[in-house]
Amino acid sequence: MKSGLYKKILTQIPEGVLILDKDFNVVFANDWFKKVTKKDVIEGKVNEFLENYYYDNTEDEYAIRKFDIVVDNEKLAVKVNTKKVDDGYVVMISLLKECICLDVIHNDFISTVSHEMRTPLTSMKGFIDTILSAGDKLDASQKDRFLKIVKQQIERLTRLVENLLTVSRLENKKIKDVYKSLNVIDLSKIVVDELKSKHPNHIFVVIENNNVSNILADYDKAHQVLTNLIDNAAKYSQKNTTIEIKAQNKPDNDFVEISIKDQGIGIPQEYIGKIFSKFLRIDNPLTREVQGTGLGLYITKTLIDSMGGVISVESELDKGTTFSVDWPVATTESQAKKRFLQDAVK
Ligand code: ATP
Ligand code: MG
Question: Model's pTM, two decimal places?
Fold first, then answer.
């Protein structure tokens, strides 16, 4: 590579780069460094700037230090990495705002997941300890009840791990889509048949409509979206209530709207905006009764977003909730485009 090109890359790189000679004279400062330190011209010795930020890193030559620098009376958290080279120093400086923010999100996530896992583990340990220590004093039906609780907790953990894996695959974009033209009413009927045994006391109604266009979607993703929404509709409504699923073309014929309407407990207004966040569960006697990880709606929204759809929700407390999904219609053109894009990334 030509040296001019190196200089251009160094100048424009979105990290602060400062090159000093062995006496701390500035040899080069890139645009980002000048912008963050608000110094148009950096010349001469930079001891006044660096005396606080340079440290001898001979022990660990890639050591990174975090500092607060003051620029125009504003404190900025930066990460400084100083590397001694033959006849001088290379100083890399980056703002920590983004890194800290990611750290916080990461830590929050780990602490929530650990908490979610600890609850079933503690409960299982308690029951197993009782069976082991007082096994001979328990009758068969008590033992049976305890083992059933342990099994439930194992199922809860399995669901949590499966959902976490789905979240991780989705966030790392590891799921390969195969787009197909699908009839959303037929798919809803399949999902309802699968869920009926889980919710035998609910009434599911899929409204027929022959005028609905096919949607363009990945079968597995569409199946999971409908399963999560229809399962929620039954989980958060009392027995013997009705869940109605209907689909219709939107006026411009670009989207099909599918709605899942229940007569359940409803979602309080203050939660509507947060309902698609990870691990959100609204406390309620019925929610406490039914198990859940609080990841279903987050996964659902991420799946719908990835297929170019839009999800929305309307709800009235103690009356019911309707989740609606606007799904792109499968036209000859949209299918050809998707196929072309899929082939292009192969
Ligand atoms: P899972 O991850 O197993 O699906 P979950 O059902 O608790 O667990 P979500 O599907 O993400 O998680 O739903 C989040 C929360 O939103 C639920 O715990 C419930 O409080 C509320 N909720 C979801 N759907 C409905 C609904 N149709 N009616 C009322 N509340 C709902
Ligand atoms: Mg759910």
Answer: 0.69
